[in-house]
Write a structure and sequence with these properties.
Blueprint: H1 3-19, E1 24-33, H2 41-44, E2 46-52, E3 56-62, E4 67-75, E5 84-91, E6 94-95, E7 101-105, H3 108-114, E8 120-126, E9 129-137, E10 143-152
Parallel strand pairs: 1-8
Antiparallel strand pairs: 1-4, 2-3, 2-5, 5-6, 5-7, 8-9, 9-10
Signal peptide: 1-26
Keywords: Secreted, Self-incompatibility, Signal
Family: Belongs to the plant self-incompatibility (S1) protein family.
């Protein structure tokens, strides 16, 4: 390949790369334990096991008002949209109705459920169940949250 052809190929590749949408984005996943109003330490704790396509984050125990945050980079370009985090949850009140809960996915429909921007998903355990905390903005752009019940605690074992 001649020197001019190599230079033209380089410039063409740079132009195409600049015109493509961003292939990666920052993701943030937060799990919170807001179980309260209960006597007995055991009922207040939340056991969590999470994993993605690439990483197993293992089991962790969240005490009341504790949270865990994971930040990561996601691939957001078809056909590579694959970043997904799934978790299992156990509390003194039982487990979620689904054994495995998808708590983050780059799929646009899922990300819209997380709320404004879709790059941050927050999940909250409360006494009566497991909630997705949706991020909303008012007409002035101020951020607020709406908790949506996704699963009541159930006994399976």
């Amino acid at each position: 390949m001649g020197r001019n052809q190599g230079w033209c190929l380089f410039v063409a590749a740079a132009v195409v790369a600049a015109l493509l949408p961003s292939s990666t984005m920052a993701g943030r996943l937060e799990l919170k334990n807001e179980i309260s109003g209960v006597t007995g330490v055991r009922k207040l704790k939340l056991a969590v096991r999470c994993w993605s396509n690439e990483d197993d984050l293992g089991w962790d125990t969240l005490k009341p008002m504790q949270s865990r945050v994971w930040k990561f980079t996601t691939m957001n370009m078809w056909p590579f949209q694959k970043t997904e985090f799934r978790c299992q949850f156990r509390s003194g009140f039982g487990t979620t109705s689904q054994d495995v809960v998808t708590v983050f996915s780059v799929q646009s429909g899922f990300r819209k459920e997380c709320g404004d921007g879709g790059d941050e998903c927050i999940w909250v355990a409360k006494r009566d169940g497991f909630y997705q905390r949706r991020i909303v903005r008012d007409e002035n752009g101020r951020k607020s949250f709406v908790d949506i019940l996704k699963s009541k605690w159930v006994w399976k074992w």
